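ok so for the tutorial part 2 we go from a plain amino acid sequence to predicted structure tokens. step 1 is just haveing the sequence, like this:
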Amino acid sequence: MKIFLYAVGTIIALLVVAGAATYFTGNMIKVVALFGPQHGWDLQFKAPAPDYSNARAWAALPSKPGLTAYVPAGVDGPARDSQVDAFFIHPTGYMNGADWNSPLVADSQTEENTDWMLANQASALNGCCAVYAPRYREASIFRYISATPDIFKKAGDFAYADVDRAFTYFLEHYSNGRSFIIASHSQGTEHGFNLIRRRIDGTPLANRLVAAYLLGGGITDKEIAALKTIHACATPADIHCIIHWATYGEGAVPVRTDTKDKLLCVNPLTWMRDGAMASASLHKGAVPISGRFQIKFWGSDNAHGIRFPPLQAPVRAWTTAECRNGFLFVRDQRGSQFAKLDVGGKNYHGLDYPLFGMDIRENAIVRAAAYGNAPK
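step 2 — the prediction. this is what the tokens look like for a chain of 376 residues:
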């Protein structure tokens, strides 16, 4: 019976994560919301708004980089005296159903999941930049599973309001007019693209944006075409532009079928929009995962003592990559050390950063240098 219950729990967990991963590509897996919030939209369940003047409201700052200072073994350490900042917006780590938004409890599974994102995603930016990563009252995983349209919007807007305030504080108190990169994943990409649309595009801030690595979301070609001054990145050294991809293994059938409004896909091996098949010889390297991302979404949100060892050496020339109908297709990862982040159906949502960790690291350095040499 215990084995059966464990198997059922594992299947449900995979469905939940797949629901989050695939929502942003046009579909949402419906599951029984047994463990989700049992109330509607109610502000009494919300944590107080983060005070971004307090360092505790930030998951990472240059003064306390923590896991964002991780560098793969054998790779040069974080940049010193960088003239470029990176504003990183982490994806969904709140798997609990106590409310539609995270209560921002420090000693929690949610916080450990944020740490996973800092170590395995945000750290890719430390070769070019000083990394800033705000904590925010992120939307729960159940937003993508069982929320009504009204709650779906409110939970997303509530989370974005924190990100927006954090970005304002970053600009007014930390940035000091410097150039910056925006980086994000999944839910974070939803908020990151909203920052681009609402705060940056068509404003003087667009001239300070080096590039935006907005990965694993649902950014479409149509949405890119609607921007005024920000465009899709088209070359490895292009600036004032957006990079996006959603990763699948060869043979996968992505859930989104609307090719008329396809997703933006920039190939991370060539950095070309809608890039054709690129040889594995161009692959700078995948970075093996540190620690464990937790999918437990029932019971308490208490921390489990997850540890994050230093990053291992990159695995170079590991995969090919090809943009096809708006999706990024890579080699099948079955049987490899990266297979555990397959959320089902060769959907490599969790690999959007790690599979191209060195490619992102080196390209961010290239773009930061290109910005430094570009006319202002």
